[in-house]
Design brief:
The chain contains 20 helices and no strands. By secondary structure, the chain is mostly helical. It has a single domain, classed as Amino acid/polyamine transporter I (Up-down Bundle). α5 packs antiparallel against α14, α8 runs antiparallel to α14 and α12 packs across α13. The structure holds phenylalanine. The site of phenylalanine has 15 residues, from α1, α2, α10 and α14.
């Protein structure tokens, strides 16, 4: 089989999966979503989803990758044949490829902003700047399609370069340097936050639960975020799992990935909100939290420019170790299916995602409001793409859970999991019932909140589709 590569070490999958999981989702999205959704309550739902739904599906997705040893699309094609199930399950692979492409398109644009801020910080341009200047600066960046496209291009090209060099020379070696550096930087920023900020207020904000604070939309966001942050349901983990040596423990690794990812989000949240509260700023700034509120906090603090620069390097490193995992599943598919060389495959994926990214770029300026897009979809292209991925990832996760839970046989799962029967039964119960129920529940809850026709229509399609698929599947599990 052409694509049958294996990581060089037993622990590389853990490194790669953590690299994929820890990203803009932890450093940018998690803090601002928490800030917008009232803090602790949001975190409670997020953490519950990670543990009851995220970890079991993480195991399921890795398992599908490792048993098939191919890219998600080809791997699912193979599994539907060997398990005599409907070809429709191949949709897991295709849906994943679409999600990867959509996520990469906006991910690279946002990472591009971080590139801009790394530059601003390290050149000391924002030292002592006031709130007005800093928020105007962000607006100027958003108003400039050419500047945003420039950074977007740089970022996506760098990611492509790493993936193009292959899983050993590119991805593995890149991660081996980046990941330890990222953890050190994160600690530096946390200590800085504790010294210069208000860590008590931050902890209070993050860990006080009041479930009434959470809106319906907040529930969907918390759940979507837990899939997003674990890179679940879109094939990245499946693709990396395909390179995982057979002797490495799936269960332990999956728990470690979820644990590290959650810890990074919490530490980042603690550090960021310490600085925000310390400077007496607002928490609910939305996406601008990292790019307006935080630079303002750095502008007023001792050594702010330096630590701010280091912080944005952290953001960039985390983003690039995630974006490579968005390119890999699609690139691996193109190599396997069409016998392309790796550079060719990577180029195709990246150029397409780059072009799609231009939609996100113009969402903040030329197409900001009043265009046909807004009339049709009730939101900007960026918001729409983000919404789609927020739906596709749980949907992919649901299908993965159903397939792994119902179509794989007990003996093959036991062999892969390498654990005892009790744990196997617990896992199977979670992926058969709890995961699918939780995902459906969240979608059902969003339906009454009619916001255009988009959410209810997709939600209904989602449930009908999942049901139809599960009917067509042959239950071969014992
Ligand atoms: N998990 C990444 C983050 O938190 C985002 C991501 C999603 C990466 C899906 C790969 C696949 O930033």
């Amino acid at each position: 089989m052409s694509g049958h590569n294996v990581w060089t070490h037993k622990g590389t999958f853990l490194l790669a999966a953590v690299g994929s999981a820890v990203g803009l989702g932890n450093l940018w999205r998690f803090p601002y979503l928490t800030g917008e959704n009232g803090g602790g309550a949001f975190i409670l739902i997020y953490a519950l989803t990670i543990f009851a739904v995220g970890i079991p599906i993480l195991i399921a997705e890795t398992l599908l990758g490792r048993t098939s040893r191919q890219s998600p699309i080809m791997g699912m094609r193979h599994l539907t044949k060997t398990h005599k199930t409907s070809r429709a399950w191949e949709s897991i692979g295709w849906l994943g490829a679409v999600s990867a492409f959509l996520i990469l398109s906006f991910y690279s644009v946002i990472a591009g902003w971080a590139l801009h801020y790394t530059w601003l910080m390290l050149t000391g341009s924002l030292v002592g700047a006031d709130a007005q200047t800093i928020s105007d600066g962000f607006d100027t960046l958003l108003a400039s399609p050419s500047l945003m496209t420039f950074y977007h291009t740089l970022f996506i090209a760098a990611s492509a370069l790493i993936v193009g060099m292959g899983i050993h020379k590119g991805i593995e070696s890149g991660l081996r340097i980046m990941m330890p550096a990222l953890f050190i930087i994160l600690m530096v920023v946390l200590i800085y936050g504790i010294i210069n900020g208000d860590v008590g207020a931050a902890a209070n904000f993050l860990f006080t639960f009041n479930i009434g604070d959470l809106s319906l939309e907040g529930w969907l966001q918390a759940m979507g975020q837990s899939f997003f942050t674990l890179s679940l349901g879109m094939g990245a983990i499946m693709a990396y799992g395909a390179y995982m040596p057979s002797e490495a423990s799936l269960t332990r690794t999956a728990i470690a990935v979820a644990f590290v990812d959650t810890a990074v989000a919490m530490v980042a949240g603690l550090a960021i909100f310490s600085l925000v509260f310390g400077a007496g700023l607002e928490t609910g700034q939305g996406p601008g939290l990292m790019f307006v509120t935080l630079p303002l906090a750095f502008a007023e603090m001792p050594f702010g420019a330096l630590v701010g620069g280091v912080f944005f390097i952290l953001v960039l490193g985390a983003a690039i170790s995630s974006s490579i995992s968005l390119i890999e599943p699609v690139a691996a598919f193109l190599v396997e299916r069409f016998d392309m060389t790796r550079p060719q495959a990577v180029t195709i994926m990246v150029v397409a995602a780059w072009a799609m990214g231009l939609l996100t770029v113009v969402s903040f300026n030329v197409w900001a409001e009043g265009t046909i897009f807004h009339t049709l979809f009730g939101r900007s292209a960026f918001d729409f793409i983000e919404l789609l991925t927020n739906i596709f990832m749980p949907l992919g996760g649901l299908l993965i859970a159903l397939f792994a839970g119902w179509a794989l046989t007990q003996s093959e799962v036991m062999k892969e999991l390498g654990t005892n029967k009790t744990w196997f039964k617990t896992w199977r119960f979670l992926v058969r019932f709890v995961g699918p129920a939780a995902v459906s529940f969240v979608f059902l809850r969003t339906i009454p909140q009619v916001d255009g026709y988009v959410i209810p229509t997709l939600g209904a399609l989602f449930i009908v589709g999942a049901f139809a698929l599960s009917q067509r599947m042959r239950v071969s599990a014992s």
